[in-house]
Amino acid sequence: MKANKRNHDFKALELKLTEESVSPHIIYFKEHSVREQSPEKPSGRTLFVVNLPPYADEKGLTNAFHEAGTVHSVRFCNKPNETEEKPTKTFLPETLHPRFRIAYIVFKKVAQLDKALKLTKLKPMYETSNEVKLGMDKWIQEHNNSILLPKNLKENIEEFMKSYDADAKSAEEKEKQLEQEDDEGWVTVTKQGKVQSFARSDKVENKIMAKEEKNKKRKELKNFYTFQIRESKMKHIVALRQKFEEDKRKIAQIKQSRRFKPF
Q1: What integer is the mean pLDDT of 5-10?
Q2: CA 105 to CA 68: how far, in whole Å?
Q3: Lowest-confidence pick of 18-22, 52-56, 122-126, 214-218
Q4: 10 Å Cβ neighbour count for 61?
Q5: What is the dihedral of CA 170, 172, 173, 174, to 10 degrees?
Q6: 77-86: pLDDT as tens digits
Q7: CA-to-CA distance for 152 and 236, rounded, in angstroms?
Q8: Which residues contact 195 (CB under 8 A, 6 or more apart)?
Q9: Which segments does the entry list as coiled coil (predicted)?
Q10: Which of 28, 102, 105, 211 is most buried (most C-beta within 10 Å)?
Q11: Which residues are paired to 76 by β-bridges?
């Protein structure tokens, strides 16, 4: 039995919004083939599509690849093989960013993927442009959808705070469990937990008090100011001159006693 060989190079086709569109976008697609298998992107039935315009949605791509067969699911991503992240807990709705994306189109059958790879033309995503909002109309709709009613906003805030309090309580209970002694008397110390104090003896307390008193005494700064440095240099020169005169007297005394032997 011969294996089914597919071309793994990208194929380029025009993607039109409607049949009357005069400025279509060029999209590129090929079979999604990676080593790590995923149930959301099954091997042999997934089509990898890039350079999708911002207005492309699941319904539009399903219509565009309708001739290939039944589309099981469409998964949009910003980067290839991007893992889905958990949404951040917030009481504000997520905003849509107008940017080009990629998509993984999963067909119901393997033969339908083969047919999609052999397509020479895609169907328009919509029959009329009224089915999708673009440009200013789309931005106005997104802005209106992002504004919450005071009642809904209050419900979202209360739900967020309730979830936050539950997480904080769970973390506190977990920390208390870790601080409890085990059978051997050991205590797990965490970076958020309090360090347990030890009983101080009189000797330890005396050492600590002596160290604190010593630290309280201010040390005099030497040669810190300019005039101190100048005075220090002058004193040093005077001391050198005095030593020089003293050495001269000693040499004179040795000469007089005839103990001086230079050679």
Answers
A1: 66
A2: 12
A3: 214-218
A4: 22
A5: 80
A6: 888 876 654 4
A7: 83
A8: 189
A9: 154-184
A10: 105
A11: 103
First to last CA, the chain: 114
23 sits in which H/E element? none
Q: For residues 210 and 216, give the distance between their C-alpha atoms in angstroms, rounded to a whole number.
A: 10
Section 34-52 average pLDDT: 86
Q: Which residues on neighbouring strands pair with residue 154, listed in sequence order?
A: none
Question: Which of 130, 128, 133 shows the shortest CA–CA distance to 145?
Answer: 133
Cβ partners under 8 Å of residue 216, min gap 6 = none
Q: Give the separation between CA 249 and CA 245, rounded to whole angstroms.
A: 6
Q: Confidence band (pLDDT; 50, 70, 90) for 159?
A: very high
Cα–Cα nearest to 25, from 125, 115, 167: 125
Give the residue from 58, 57, 52, 59 showing the smallest Cα distance to 28.
52
Residue count (the chain): 263
Q: Is the pLDDT of residue 175 over 90?
A: no
